[in-house]
Design a protein that fits this description.
3 domains; globular; four-stranded antiparallel sheet; Serine Threonine Protein Phosphatase 5, Tetratricopeptide repeat; three-stranded antiparallel sheet; 67% helix; alpha+beta; 19 helices
Length: 474
């Protein structure tokens, strides 16, 4: 580069530097604490080591370890956060700063680079018609992964600010529900009171026997009057309230809201679909096969009512998979592709179904089509990477055998890790109680606990390594 070109490039480089500085100084829009699980696990291991040091008469070292475990680590856990500044999702805290200082590594991911957003719902408590859900959202893209766990106001704010910016095809059903219907509990209580739903204690003792498609007895001489605009608006508001109650775990009240909405609009495809998801949640919470069968029936009815709705059909197919009905899930996905061959979500759903059946050629075809039709760069990149991976499995027998070994090892290591954790807990209990009865029993408990803890740590490391796909040999 000559001197003139260097001088001409100075303004451009200055603008790039200023833009980077502005990006670093962006104000925080929302942030949420990282799940404290790994910190608690590490603190428990340190405490166990400190207990062994106390048995070895090394009191000073044991006291130092206990102080580090329960004074320093909680501070690190509280200050370790996932921050969203309107454009980037990044890890923020002392540990992230240390990694950046030592290795120059900064864990961050732009919203446009998100590839998949998947949310899992875990029931933590069930009481009557109410279920307490804990949501775990996993965001992946460009080889990076962020895990966000629900825990109050910060999580709700992050969902409200972040999820509407994410492309629709990157969200699974639960993430979409959180984006549209996650609400503040106090505000939801006020909405429920204004809607004049029956009290929750009354609904808990009332049998929920509302069924779709049930014909009402009418006088044949009196024609059925269509719903007024006011009734349709109320049905729309009740549908939204029902979804908000379902996401918050208030399933009985959600059922009452849907019942009232369906009395006004019994043929609404989206309303029937949302009601089916409520039945699915109730079936899971109560372990009721009859409710699960009703959820599948409601989804089949929603498929009929959806007609040519290419947005709703893939969502119905994904819900069928959650209900364990692969046959009807395929029908819904294929119908969406017939109507719109460029439907990315339906293509990926068909690839997942083909993978369940072991049809690798079909998996490759659907991912290639998904990459071809997608205008979103991150989605196309994700589909191409999946297509390349399964094509390598299909064409290289050695690579297929290596991946099968990796998955088998992962399953075995996971089982051993869970067993080692149970043995560790039981052995610690034996050591604490047995020490008062017989010193030999206490020593045996500590020995078993030490061995099981070492096995647990090794299998934990092995699980992390085996999660990564193998690289094909060139």
């Amino acid at each position: 580069m000559n001197e003139t070109k260097e001088l001409n490039s100075l303004p451009v480089l200055s603008e790039v530097q200023e833009e980077r500085e502005r990006a670093q100084k962006r104000s925080t829009v929302a942030s949420v604490r990282v799940s404290p699980g790994p910190y608690l696990a590490f603190a428990s291991v340190i405490t166990f080591v400190a207990a062994l040091m106390l048995r070895a008469q090394q009191d000073a070292a044991a006291l130092g370890l206990i102080a580090a475990a329960w004074l320093i680590l909680p501070v690190l856990a509280i200050s370790d956060r996932i921050v969203f500044d309107g454009a980037l999702l990044r890890r923020h805290g002392p540990l992230a700063s240390l990694l950046k200082l030592l290795f120059g590594y900064r864990k961050q991911l732009a919203v446009d680079d998100f590839e998949t957003v998947e949310t899992q719902a875990v029931r933590t408590l069930r009481r009557g018609g109410r279920v307490r859900y804990r949501y775990r959202t996993q965001i992946t893209g460009k080889g990076r992964e962020f895990v966000i766990v629900s825990g109050g106001r910060d999580y709700r704010k992050l969902v409200r600010e972040l999820f509407p910016l994410i492309h629709e095809s990157k969200l699974d059903n639960r993430s979409r529900d959180l984006r549209d219907y996650l609400n503040d509990p106090s505000f939801l209580n006020r909405k429920t009171q204004l809607s004049q739903l029956a009290p929750s204690d009354l609904l808990d003792v009332t049998k929920a026997d509302f069924k779709l498609g049930r014909k009402l007895k009418r006088n044949a001489d009196v024609p059925e009057t269509p719903a007024t605009a006011e009734e349709l608006e109320r049905a729309r508001l009740l549908r939204r309230l029902g979804n908000e109650l379902r996401v918050s775990g208030r399933l009985r009240e959600a059922g009452e809201a849907f019942r009232r909405a369906l009395n006004v609009r019994p043929h609404g495809a989206w309303l029937i679909y949302d009601f089916a998801r409520l039945l699915r949640s109730q079936a899971s919470a109560q372990s009721d096969a009859r409710l699960l069968s009703r959820a599948r029936a409601a989804l089949r009815l929603a498929t009929i009512r959806a007609k040519n709705d290419v947005v709703l059909l893939p969502l119905i197919g994904e819900s069928f998979l959650e209900c364990g009905d692969a046959r009807h899930a395929r029908r819904a996905m294929e119908k969406a592709v017939e109507i719109d061959s460029g439907n990315f979500k339906a293509r990926v759903g068909l690839a997942d179904l083909a993978l369940r059946e072991g049809k690798l050629a079909h998996v490759i075809h659907h991912y290639q089509e998904a990459a071809r039709v997608s205008s979103e760069q991150a989605l196309a990149r994700y589909a191409r990477s999946e297509s390349d991976y399964y094509m390598q499995l299909n064409n290289d027998d050695d690579y297929l055998a290596a991946e099968l070994r990796r998955i088998n090892w992962l399953q075995s290591v996971t089982r051993i890790r869970r067993l080692a954790l149970r043995v560790t807990n039981a052995s610690v209990l034996l050591a604490l109680i047995g020490g008062f009865v017989d010193p030999v029993a206490g020593s045996l408990g500590w020995s078993l606990a030490s061995s099981a803890l070492i096995v647990w740590l090794l299998t934990l490391l092995g699980t992390r390594m085996l999660f990564t796909r193998s690289k094909p040999s060139i």
